[in-house]
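User: Could you check the structure of this?
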Amino acid sequence: MRCLAAAELRGATLFWGLALAGCTRFVPVDRLPQAYYQTATPSQDVSGALEVAMRAVKRIRVTGAYDNYRFAPGDQPMEGDLLTPEVLARATETFPSSTSREASAVQVARAGLKITLLTNQHPIQFSDTIVEYQETPEGGAPTGPRPIESVSVLRSQYNMVADSLSVLPFEVLAEDAQADLALLGVVYPADTPPRALSTLRVPMGNSERLSWGSFVYVLGHPGGYDMVTQGIVSDPGRGSSSFFLIDGLWNEGVSGGPILAVRGEDETLEWVGVARAAAGRREQRLVPDREFIPEREERTLYRGRIYIEEVQRILYGISFSVPTAAIRRFTNRSRPRLRDRGWPLPDY
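Assistant: Sure, the predicted structure tokens are below.
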């Protein structure tokens, strides 16, 4: 019997090792202990659950109609004066205007054709009166009551909830400016398809168990589009009392949309809050006087007046969210009033 040389022995060992490796069955290793809410994208498919949840998220549009009164110099009311009908009648120019806002709302409860929705309070609230004051000369500080340049008075407000099937008016049932939450009521017609009556089936979770890096989905209608986006949570300790932060890139229209987290132990979705708003910062910028901007397109030297204008700059990626702790407190306070009027509301 021939003995194998050392080189042949090494080659045979490598061959059988590779052969055995090709037949080895890999056994998944048990995962390490998970946070209550996962800090990574889920390993299983949740697209079906997100699609069903999106059916309960509606787009709302609120329009405020104003009557505007502009006063001539020398006959202007002053700061602190009562804006009575007699004072407004002194206006030299009157004209109507309107302004609209869009947001998202979650259908949370149903009783027949009556649906209760939850959203933010800020998109549905318009000021009753808006006053603009005359600028002080050379931008100096006012030394007394300021002359009023114009007054805008809210005449009416139109509240609509919409999806791909219908556009219907809604009623504001309850609101809380401090928590930035509101409950809305809409009555659907008898021929409404069951899909449009869907309520959110994702169970309400516990925002106080969010951790740094918790992974979340955000559903809503930014810009009027049906969208789901994602983000991670920062500063989760704020969730027990006010708001927590998400790095999601939010645009106008997503306010009021539900935020869903992924349970660490079984990867099911739970509702942990609603989108509120992106952070902002007020900045000053120089703007030209439009009267001195030439109409021709070629480049020319600007020689007109320059003004300072204050603008709101959105800090995308720094987004505030209302936690479920605040939602529970708000709905518990509102439940007796809604029950008396026949509007449904879940017991969270």
